[in-house]
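User: Hi! I'm working on a homework problem where we have to compare a predicted structure to a textbook description. Could you give me the structure for the chain below?
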Amino acid sequence: MSVNPGQIPHGAEALPDDRFLDREESWLRFNQRVLELAEDPRLPLLERVRFLSIFASNLDEFFMVRVAGLTRRMATGLAVQSASGRQPREVLERTAGVARELMLRHATTFRDDLLPALAKEGIELLRWDDLADTEQERMRRLFRDRIYPVLTPLVVDSAHPFPYISGLSLNLAVIVRDPGNDATMFARVKVPPVLPRFIEASPNRFTPLEDVIAQHLGQLFVGMEIVEHHAFRVTRNQDLEIDDDISEGLLQALERELLRRRFGPVVRLEVEDSISEGVLDLLTTELAIDERQIYRLDGPLDLAGMSAIADLDRPELKYPPFVPSKEALPADADLFAAVRERDVLVHHPYDSFTTTVQRLIEEAADDPRVLAIKQTLYRTSGDSPIVDALVGAAAAGKQVVVVVELKARFDERANIAWARKLEKAGCHVVYGFVGLKTHCKLALVVRQEADGALRRYCHIGTGNYHPKTARLYEDFGLLTADPAVGEDVSALFNHLTGYSRQNSYKRLLVAPQSLRPGLVQRIEREIEHHEAGRPAHVRFKCNSVVDEVVIDALYRAAQAGVPVDVWVRGICALRPGVQGLSETIRVRSVLGRFLEHSRVFAFENGGDPEVWLGSADLMHRNLDRRVEALVKVTDRGHRHELVDLISLAMDDGTDAWWLDGDGTWTRRSAMTDAPLLDIQTHLVRSRRWRTVDA
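Assistant: Happy to help. Predicted structure tokens:
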């Protein structure tokens, strides 16, 4: 290993240049872990189907954003060597190779594993030729009545240029011949996204929509001979580029950019492996792509649509149902009195979001003693009770301030709609800072108590105010009336709405000013504790670990002998277990029924653990280009609960993926004599939950 002295603290060893794993490949390895869940025969069958669908959706987003962004930077000459030491071209080629390998594995799992397993359960996905005569006749009627009216065949000739192919649309490339002059032409037929991806030919027997269309092409090209047809799909750059310094309003700029995004360059072409070379050459030329961007797969394409199969009403093929606990804030308890008495830690989805966080906003909106509500909104649902409560609060005359992040990726249109709805209702809506996304999860309720005093009630969380995803995403939230937190959150909202220069807080670490330095300082403090013979241990739980400054601090802690445990869901650029660099570092990943989404940072602190939770991942964008907030957890019981949870995930007896120093993830899911502990199932059974019959 070569040595890069960098900015090495006095007394620390030099760190090697190749100490970081490549972030793009690490993300692909995360999606590989999702695929391994689809491959796991121990999981309920329809849950495996769902993971198969999630893999496809994840990979779509990866190409739309990460591959597209790298391609754009290379085209403009802005791409630089990655922290892993790879040149941009090398990263792109390596990414394409790994992605291709995983896409083929994904298609094989669908064809050779899940299709036969579904068939055994009476759920069949069939190509046209495998349908019964009666089913084909039913599909012909369906085509005539529902499909044909929404199709628009587009031919390419001297009067009709090659049509625009929208991103993620499924299409049929059709070659037709005119019997009158024997001339052949290319035509494109878009598979309508408004119709189901898989059409039910008869109960529990489905066929791809493009197969039905393909069998009726003669009705679209009357009098023409159909020479050949092939399914294809393109992925385009969908990342947004907003100039925050433009003179027009951010709302208008974002709306314009959303229109432009439809026409981003193609970064991937998926075709069925039966496609002819002539048609493929035509697509390659017209879409201006090269061979490396072409992915040949067994059909059908677009398996993200398998989510509809996963949603079938077959409870015996799914995870057993359950009801989240309501014990954190019982319905008969006075919410404000309970939070005044002590901080309340909620763990979703194990604790009900509806009866805790949502209840706080709804009761605040209805409570005549509440004077003001301030809240950040990054993502929320289409029929959000949170938004409705804020609208109702404004209508009741309360001061309502909402910081809406318009640029939440792929939720931009929805957030524009919420912003306008809130503004129309009389809420004060602001969009945060120029150049920064507002990603922190904060709610502040100002209430006048019976004695006339004002008290502030706060919620600081790790997840979005989204009632639907709160049932699927694992997140923590802290409800507190601690005056120090109230002062901090008030100051942070003033920072967001009034551009104050607040940089220091009592119980918060806030990015981009103090969060990274605060974490690094505490890592360095663990080194001091260890060298002094006091208990020292660093435990992190987050979605991604990429930031080089924090990773280097963890390496220095490891070199000093401090145990470091990292529980990460997705990307991890840190190399654990490398001799002389990270021998005391362990990295684990847990994937399963719920999306692990919470961020927790715990420090042993000489035997008096210090624990923080909040919205920030260890990524450049979170620490440098977003407003993020971590809150210090002061209740001793809460601190132990959070530390114990991370320790359980790191235990050798827990089902998890282990990261090796070379970037390889290995699942440790079974012992010789007994299965390992599934941490999510354990929490469902042992926390404050009750199961219900299917």
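For your comparison, note the following. The chain has three domains: 23-317, 323-501, 510-691. Residues 88-120 form the longest helix (33 residues). Good luck with the assignment!
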